Amino acid sequence: MPVPALTAALHRSISEIDPAVWDGLKGDDNPFNSHAFLETLEQTGCVGEDSGWVPHHLSLSDEAGTIRGVMPLYLKYHSMGEYVFDHSWAQAYERAGGRYYPKLLSASPFTPVTGTRLLSPDPEVRAALIRTAVQLCDTNGLSSFHVNFPTSDEWTLMGAEGLLLRQDQQFWWSNAGYQSFDDFLAALSANRRKVIRRERRDVQAALSLKIHSGHEITEAHLDHLHAFIEDTYDRKWGSPYLTRAFFSVITERMRDQIVLVFAYDGDQPVAGAINYRGGDTLYGRQWGARVDVPFLHFEVCYYQAIDYAIAHGLSRVEAGTQGEHKISRGYLPHPVYSAHHIRDRDLREPVARYLTQERAAVSAQMAEYEAELSPFRKRDQA
Hints:
By secondary structure, the protein is an alpha+beta fold.
């Protein structure tokens, strides 16, 4: 049955859309495309005019005024906080006299996690969302429209609609029905079991580890967490993307989905990480530490997450971007995606050629990682 005529609207705040409507169209249990998460980013100043992430969320409504589909959408004045890197495209275009920014982006800000971007159960509405966003880009003279970390099905649809397809990889841990951490270790090679046990033993001899979740989480925990994260950003990147207020509001609104891992020296918290639960997956996000203890990052961000996932029957841990070092700790490569509409042919054609080569290189590298670096015993990979 053909989709009825749809009317597009842009919303300068997600608060203009009823949370029940947005989340009812979402179609997955990912916390990072939820109305609460995206609204909290807006309400606490993480996104907005000052940050260069200006909300322009897209909705499509039928003749009765019922919203049939939505897309998180931002007008971006830079490429920071995206984790899909197009800086070289921007530089090349601007050297040639073009204006790359602002651009349109569909994503969950500061969050390199795969999730639904075309929020509608109707495949024709999902296609209409893509076409409408492309039209918004072109009619407003913007350089480009991008979709970061869509699902594989959405990615395929975007390719069918003419967007350029990009593939990268992340490293995820999968639960093969393990009953304990030792059960997981038993699936690894003898050498990797020995190394991981030593790493955990060394950290746990120096510090104690504790999980805080749900109503156990206090403002004091969040003070420490933000300070840890701020220290990490100060040393590596500059100011953190997320404000201190964000952590208070998101904990109030999504408390049952937040899992903190803290390391203590006596009674004093010295390191911590924030994770989010979504259905059968634990998503590792920001972390930081005030002490330099060997292997502390691995314990707080990887091993404790595996422990938690096994104890709670979760099927996967997604530990964020980067990190070939994750492979030897049981986190294997998985593809992640983005899609790109570039208005100017003089930029689009070289980018298309590059992405064809990049996809092949990423696929080859993933296969090499699986074959050469996997810590699992060979018979367990069959």
